[in-house]
Amino acid sequence: MKKFAFALTFTSGAAALLAHQDADASTQHTVQSGESIWTIAQKYNISVDQITQDNNLSNHIIFPGQVLSIGSGNSGNTQNTTAPNLSQGNTHTVRAGESLDIIAAQYGVTAQDIMNANNLNGYLIFPNQTLKIPGGSGGNGSAGSSTPDGSTPNGGYNSPTFNHQNLYDWGQCTWYVFNKRAEAGQPISTYWWNADHWATNASADGYTIDHNPTVGSIMQNYEGPVGHVAYVERVNPDGSILISETNYNTPPGTPDYRTIPASIASSYNYIH
After folding, report:
1. Are the beta carbons of 38 and 4 closer than 8 angstroms?
2. What is 89-145's CATH number, 3.40.50.2000, 3.60.21.10, 3.10.350.10, 3.40.630.30?
3. Where is the LysM domain (predicted)?
């Protein structure tokens, strides 16, 4: 009986060990608000590249509620795959139309990470400003602000700017886009009224309006009773665009991301 009990105990222990190893190999992480790929990589002591590869991600943009597989691939020698320390990283030269969110997404960090590394008190950055990227992975200083053919957005066009307070209704799409442009160093007027009037009023203020999206431009349409506006975060090589917005699929004040297919992207107005 003692020998049997020992064998049973040994077998149970081995099974538990195998189960533990299997759990480690298939850890699931639900992205929380404020997290970036970089902070998640640090938490699990793996590299940003490993997370992107294991989850077939084409970039470093992740969203709250998204479920990521951690360590599902071949982790290999973890000595060389840990996330970089905050003291390490790259530098990034800000280009017109970029915001902290855009730059953070390129490098797999959060906007707050960049603010902390550069002692910034707010989200306002300026073209040609050099930023330290804490432990960033990948990214290209100019990738986030190029058109699909690699040219400079807007052909050297200088967008008008205003020094206004945000008087749009809190949480509405207009309120959100006003803040996004301010963060990008391209502040707009606070007097364009509802979204369905933005293209007309922006044109009157000297802005270029067309059907060609560029990073940092404002997408405008006439959906719903008062129209809708969103911020263009990225123009993809296939002509589709990634926008950020609020009060569309989410409650007022809650930012969200959406991809607009190339087949309809050119049907909207874009304020540059």
Report:
1. no
2. 3.10.350.10
3. 27-70, 90-133
Distances (CA, A) of 253 to 73, 114, 250: 37, 23, 8
Q: How far apart are the first and last CA of the chain?
A: 82
Helix axes 173-183, 100-107, angle to 10 degrees: 70
pLDDT tens digits for range 68-92: 888 765 444 333 333 434 344 578 8
Domain 2-80, CATH number (from 3.10.350.10, 3.40.50.2300, 3.40.50.300, 3.40.225.10): 3.10.350.10
DSSP assigned state of 254? -
Residue type present at position 261: P
pTM: predicted TM-score of the whole model, two decimal places: 0.48
Each residue of 176-208: pLDDT tens digit?
Answer: 999 999 888 889 999 999 999 999 999 999 999
Name the H helices within 100-192.
100-107, 111-117, 173-183
Amino acid identity of 38?
Answer: W
